[in-house]
Amino acid sequence: MTPQTSGTPATVEEHPVADGAAGPYALTTGPDGALWFTLVHGGRIGRLVPGGRPTEHRLDPGCGPTVITTGPDGALWFTEYRADRIGRITTDGTVTEFGLPGSGRGPFGIAAGPDGALWFTETAAGRIGRITTGGDVTEFPLPVEGAFPSAITAGHDGGLWFTLNQADAVGRIDPSGTVVLHPLPTKGAAPVGIATAPDGALWFTEIGAGQIGRVTPDGHVTEFPLPDRAARPHAVTVTADGTAWFTEWAGNRVGALTPDGRITTHDLPTPGSEPHGITTGPDGALWTALETGALARITP
After folding, report:
1. DSSP 262
2. How many domains, the chain?
3. Measuring CA to CA, which residue among 161, 211, 219 is closest to residue 190?
């Protein structure tokens, strides 16, 4: 579809949370009304109540905490990409870590499933993993080699949906382990982020093609080219009105795509800020993690 731009510029405020070397990467709203975020290069988990001061919880400095989500048990769960572990942190800061059954897994995306467990991607091993809140791990192989499964989200259809960055596809796994793949129309799309919309569709980013994609539960894919095809869209979240908000890692912007295909992009104030994860915050605004050391608050 042809990109369109409309709307008024958003207000963007940056809130420093770490030094530039620590690398804020992903973030989520916790059950305690705070933003929780990973510091991928610093080996730490951060917490910020909007309007307050950030606090940090230290992990193994080289573990590479990556994506973080709220679990069904009221704790925050995160992947440790470099350490082949899944971590859990309570809202009072108690950390528990669970090793995966083997090395070279590269866990990245993580999401709470409909079955009371956490589901995660293993980028290097080409598997989807499942971990119970007690730490029991099950792994499910994918039907394609070298696919690099990346982000994962729970769908409204009872399955988990995930992107296959190196296979140019989006996949679905149900709690029994059955996997279905949906190839994308664009070669080299390299999808990364994925999020569920209120209408049951899934929105995802195509970092390699400069597009945002939408897939329905029956596998119908629509692609929306961005005004800047070199923007390298990375993460996506969907608000209650069905708008997909996404980060443009190379474009130094955040963008919004309405359900009827209108695209608006908003520049970030600091050049080269490297936006990655994005989510709706506890204050109702959009928040994104800037790898250069801040969280940015976006209000349309």
Report:
1. E
2. 1
3. 211
Instruction: Determine the distance from the C-alpha atom of residue 201 to the mean position of all C-alpha atoms in its chain, rounded to a whole number.
Output: 16
Domain with 123 in it: 4-299
CB proximity list for 178: less than 8 A, separation 6 or greater? none
Q: Which one-letter DSSP state was computed for residue 220? A: -
State the pTM of this model: 0.96
Which tokens go with 89?
């942190």
User: Which of 80, 144, 73 is closest to 110 using CA atoms?
Assistant: 80
Please check if 14 is assigned to a binding site: no
For the chain, helix, strand, coil in percent to 5 are 0, 50, 50
CATH (domain of 60) = 2.130.10.10
Q: Concatenate the DSSP letters of all residues of 13-51 into one string.
A: EEEE-S-TTT-EEEEEE-TTS-EEEEETTTTEEEEE-TT
Does the annotation place 13 within a ligand binding site?
A: no
Task: List active site positions.
Answer: 276
CA dist 23 and 6 (Å) reads: 32
- Alpha helix (H) residue ranges in the chain: none
- CA distance linking residue 143 with residue 128, whole number of Å: 11
∠ Cα 115 75 69 (to 5°): 70
Does the annotation flag 291 for ligand binding?
yes
pLDDT tens, per residue, the chain with 300 residues: 545 554 567 899 999 999 989 999 999 999 999 999 999 999 999 999 999 999 999 999 999 999 999 999 999 999 999 999 999 999 999 999 999 999 999 999 999 999 999 999 999 999 999 999 999 999 999 999 999 999 999 999 999 999 999 999 999 999 999 999 999 999 999 999 999 999 999 999 999 999 999 999 999 999 999 999 999 999 999 999 999 999 999 999 999 999 999 999 999 999 999 999 999 999 999 999 999 999 999 998
